[in-house]
Amino acid sequence: MELPVVDLSRYLESSGYELGSDLLESCREVSRILKETGALLVKDPRCSAQDNDRFIDMMETYFQKPDDFKRLQQRPNLHYQVGATPEGVEVPRSLVDEEMQEKFKTMPDEYKPHIPKGPDHKWRYMWRVGPRPSNTRFKELNSEPVIPEGFPEWKEVMDSWGYKMISAVEVVAEMAAIGFGLPKDAFTSLMKQGPHLLAPTGSDLNCYNEEGTIFAGYHYDLNFLTIHGRSRFPGLYIWLRNGEKVAVKVPVGCLLIQTGKQIEWLTAGECIAGMHEVVVTSKTKDAIKLAKEQNRSLWRVSSTLFAHIASDAELKPLGHFAESSLASNYPAIPAGEYVEQELSVINLKGKKGFS
């Protein structure tokens, strides 16, 4: 299955006001795709392939640095919510969630995920994007950024790519809200001053290149929407709402958006948090061979950004979703408190639970 690509240009040109029937239909298509697949490919003229390449080039250079250098950017006292997270720290939820493990047993063999045996084989770097709240109950989720030495371009590249991807998420959030029959700003008003995280991962394909190696075990994301630029090495699988497992191909110049747990909360399960994994496949191995021939980096970098609802905002079903028969499954809770609950499930503090 090929995910459809939604071009955001015409919506951007309209400024979101006085939408014609064709743009309204585009908004309904966005909400329908998010509901049915949990994933959406978009083309945003403000986010170019060159922007993505510039970001990945810098992150490849960083992840290739010695581990001792990267450890200087670790902040375990802040649950790794800023700076570097070393390989072997992130634990996929499916490793600790017994209900999820029971679900595996009922899945058809062709749709089953790879079963994690331990933490993920990936590094990550967390970079806060956007303004912080001046007054918040959740200080740890809104901490100061960490800048590695020897990268004078770091802040500009991180901020530039981060802001561009957040801008794309905001447009999709507006279109989805309209498509769901909610006010245009139903989601974006809750995103203001959220603890958005640009969180690229790095996996060393020099070391981990056997087919079936897990870089991100089967999991959902706990945030609102997750957005990725195109990776140079394939390996991402998603699960559609009907249970089908699909390999994702992101075309050049496009961005992938996935639904997280917070949008599930706000829509009372109309959208559900999309399950996904990243593993080494035969196509990953083909890309490794080509990269070696071209003398390119063998670090697989994902340009991932987690867009969040503001920590102090209340998560609860919005508008007509509050009348849903499933609304009682989604009781009101501050978004920051919900995030902390998820983190504690993954590994009792100290290890973040986005994977």
TrEMBL record:
One of its GO terms (molecular function) is metal ion binding. Keywords: Iron, Metal-binding, Oxidoreductase. This is 2-oxoglutarate (2OG) and Fe(II)-dependent oxygenase superfamily protein.
